């Protein structure tokens, strides 16, 4: 059973997050280990396994890059643990530029404004990559769609580094 089936959702990148959350709460309640406290060890283990599967499925479908990666996996392309090097020179140049901008934020006159601007840039780039993914996925151009997911992962790491920088600057 796919994660989409588990959550009674049509497979695709665009999902109803309210329906996802409602079904998650329902499944979480249904498979909560406390409901199986009086059952035998085998049933307890099955319930625990199912609860874990529900949590994994929810996290996968909730996050756009994970959802995209999962859709690719359903199409036979598993990029979860790969360490593929990007050969897109324009993107590599963009990576270097963004990393330099991130490093320069702490020395800005108004680092909070710089963080907000940089965050908006990252969000916009992420949205563009999601659109590229959808277009290519819908046309079964899975290799190109996979490249957009690889690029999404870079932006996610960069957003994490930005949050860490923000936390460090606010602690001063």
From TrEMBL:
User: Which InterPro entries does the record associate with it?
Assistant: DnaJ_domain, HscB, HscB_C_sf, HscB_oligo_C, J_dom_sf
tRNA processing recorded as keyword: no
> What is any Pfam family matched here?
DnaJ
Q: Which SMART domains would you find in this protein's record?
A: DnaJ
Q: Please verify whether the record's keywords include NAD.
A: no
Matching entries from CDD domains are given as: DnaJ
The chain positions of domain J read: 2-74
What keywords appear on the UniProt entry?
A: Chaperone
Q: Which residues form a coiled coil?
A: none
Q: Which domain of life is it from?
A: Bacteria
Q: What protein family does this chain belong to?
A: Belongs to the HscB family.
Q: Whom does it interact with, and what assembly results?
A: Interacts with HscA and stimulates its ATPase activity.
Main function:
Co-chaperone involved in the maturation of iron-sulfur cluster-containing proteins. Seems to help targeting proteins to be folded toward HscA.
Can you name this protein?
Co-chaperone protein HscB homolog
């Amino acid at each position: 059973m796919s994660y989409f089936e588990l959550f009674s959702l049509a497979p695709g990148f665009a999902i109803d997050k309210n329906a996802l959350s409602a079904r998650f709460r329902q499944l979480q309640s249904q498979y909560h280990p406390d409901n199986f406290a009086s059952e035998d060890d085998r049933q307890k283990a099955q319930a625990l396994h199912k609860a874990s599967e529900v949590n994994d499925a929810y996290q996968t479908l909730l996050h756009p890059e994970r959802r995209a990666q999962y859709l690719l996996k359903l199409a036979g392309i598993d990029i979860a643990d790969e360490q593929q090097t990007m050969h897109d020179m324009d993107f590599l140049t963009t990576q270097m530029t963004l990393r330099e901008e991130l490093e320069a934020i702490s020395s800005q006159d108004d680092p909070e404004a710089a963080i907000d601007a940089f965050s908006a840039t990252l969000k916009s780039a992420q949205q563009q990559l999601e659109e590229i993914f959808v277009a290519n996925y819908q046309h079964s151009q899975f290799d190109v769609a996979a490249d957009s997911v690889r690029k999404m992962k870079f932006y996610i790491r960069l957003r994490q580094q930005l949050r860490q920088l923000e936390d460090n600057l606010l602690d001063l």
